[in-house]
DNA sequence: GACTAAGTCAATT
DNA sequence: AATTGACTTAGTC
């Protein structure tokens, strides 16, 4: 039986739920997050069926984004103007479709309240960092290239695991297989590439330290410095687009000078500049 | 048939 | 754009 390709459906309705379609779109993107408009574009480009009745299905899709905990809204960086926030997939939701119909998941992905609150805190902190990092020069930022005062952890890259349990019920921490368009369409063939993108889980449980994150790993491929920080309280969740591989630090990059903020914002203890100039892992 | 995920419509922010 | 609720449809057990 020939495997259906994404071209096979023509004007027929593809056998994917809105959640599947949205997840495909998000996961196909380099940063693993997309603004709503790009999710729409992904779907309409691949599935001609969705070039009609756009009001209807786009409303339904938005409903899904808000309703399902598997989608998280990441505030847009002020230096990337545009409409709407970015939408990402909760990493613990990546195996949602395993062994199942793409039309219907076995179980709805739902976060425990405590985890949901913690995630909201972290995103609020991120929004604060947004304001902080991109504020006008007279802000609280002092870009000291010299001193490294009172850090919670001198070297977050060396010490910080991504910790904790995240999900209600028996959701697993790590996806058992990659989550690509191809793997959705052909669930038997995990993609090696996507496997390599996974951040390794810590071998042992450690006391919960702050969570370090990079702002944007894509920006890290450029010579420009970018920013990350330590977030309190520690969250079990860090989106792949934000996480600095704590076990596998981002190759070629290293937290460099702490940027001392008087008021980094709720939940943020310190902010770092990450520099590509220092070393490789 | 019960349960619940998915989809629709629509009011509201 | 995003959130939410009420409701219907439909897949799974």
UniProtKB/TrEMBL annotation:
Its main location: nucleus. Residues 13-107 bind DNA. Involved in development during embryogenesis. Residues 13-107 form the Fork-head domain. GO terms for molecular function: DNA-binding transcription factor activity, RNA polymerase II-specific; RNA polymerase II cis-regulatory region sequence-specific DNA binding. GO terms for cellular component: nucleus. It is found in: Nucleus. InterPro entries: Fork_head_dom (IPR001766), FOX_domain-containing (IPR050211), TF_fork_head_CS_1 (IPR018122), TF_fork_head_CS_2 (IPR030456), WH-like_DNA-bd_sf (IPR036388), WH_DNA-bd_sf (IPR036390). This is Fork head domain-containing protein FD4. The keyword Ion transport does not apply. PROSITE patterns: FORK_HEAD_1 (PS00657), FORK_HEAD_2 (PS00658), FORK_HEAD_3 (PS50039). Pfam families: Forkhead (PF00250). One of its GO terms (biological process) is anatomical structure morphogenesis. Keywords: DNA-binding, Nucleus, Transcription, Transcription regulation. Coiled coil: none annotated. The gene is fd96Ca. SMART domains: FH. It comes from the Eukaryota. PANTHER family: FORK HEAD DOMAIN-CONTAINING PROTEIN FD4-RELATED, FORKHEAD BOX PROTEIN. It comes from Cryptotermes secundus.
